[in-house]
Amino acid sequence: MAKDDAFTDDQKHCLKKSFSSYRQNTSSIADTTQLSMSTTSYDRASEIKAFDETKAGVKGLVDAGITEVPRFFIHPTETIISDSTTELQIPVIDMKDVNTRKKEIVEKVKEASETIGFFKVANHGVPNKVMDEMLDAIKRFMDDDDEGEKKKYYSRDNDRKVMFNCNYDLYSSPAANWRDTLIFRMAPDPPEKEEVPCAFREIVFDYSFHMKKLGEVLLELLSEALGLKPDHLKEMECAHGIVAACHYYPPCPEPHLAIGTSKHSDPGFFTILLQDKSISGLQMLHNNKWVDVPPSPGCLVINIADLLQLISNDKLKTVEHRVLASKEGPRLSVACLFLNQYSPSRVYGPIMELLANGSAPIYREVVIDEFNKHYNTKRPDGMSALDHFKL
Hints:
This protein is of the alpha+beta class. It has a single domain (83-389), classed as B-lactam Antibiotic, Isopenicillin N Synthase, Chain (Jelly Rolls). It is built from 12 helices and 15 strands. It has helices at 9-25, 32-38, 44-53, 57-63, 77-80, 102-115, 128-143, 147-151, 203-225, 232-235, 306-311, 368-375; strands at residues 84-85, 92-94, 118-122, 162-165, 180-187, 241-249, 259-264, 270-275, 282-286, 289-292, 300-304, 321-324, 331-339, 347-348, 366-367. Strand 2 (92-94), helix 6 (102-115) and strand 3 form a beta-alpha-beta unit. Helix 1 runs antiparallel to helix 3 (44-53), helix 6 packs across helix 9 (203-225) and helix 7 packs across helix 9.
């Protein structure tokens, strides 16, 4: 199937009609909520449904030759254009000889995790070849001309171990992200080799092995940064579940209207991110200003996630981040989330050892299933998922 045939004639007509309606009714960038209220001819639900049924994602739009961003991808201007700063540099922590330099490295991890929640690691033990092959696999999968092969993985069934789609919250979010994603649920119960797309059939298991190994080292460092035994967080099953989210950000014809990934914090304990070598776009929020997190050769990005802030009783800081859209592309990344969503009845609360000095708990205990359900609800912009669980 040719790339520009990803959409049927009816689907192309529906999408083009919506684009035309938008351009005829406004000559400036307007708030999308106001726009949808004032333009009665716009059928957002039908446009999203037509797009989703192509199973071609944002890449399908680009391959079809669109020159304007569909309206359901348009974000309010103030969410894209906002204050930024170049004063903060993301720390790079050299993990070479981690066992002999452990005290020094723990202190650096502690400082970064307590203050900004973001840091990079160098000499982390993951071979460059493995990282390169993982990024190459994303491009091969997304660029595959055999649309039938790719579409068989397109799904919104969260129980699947391998799932490809565009925006997990496409039907519920105020505006969609300019991004396609292939998800692998690699732990505790990984997919069979035959369930994995051909492009990933070898590399995803090798990559996950290295992620699990690095993740366990990071848990030791984070445990000691909290003044706990090295295996404390591992024993709490903070690396029980591993999800690898392979993101593909196609070039965007109007990056001033769209965003690659909207502002969010991660739901689990921490995330290991492999970034595209050459295309930037990742930003983290610090003191209400956006800070660029550019790619660094050979480095991986680590960010603290919500549940680690909860169980550390606010000692370690989760952080909101986003990815900007760009006319360059495709931009590729792999986010490995360490979480425990596969033990829905597991209870997490502030670690008792951290309260031994008389510190009051900031959060109540929460069951994983409750936390996940709340995290996936839509909250007013700026409201953390953690606020709901504060005492």
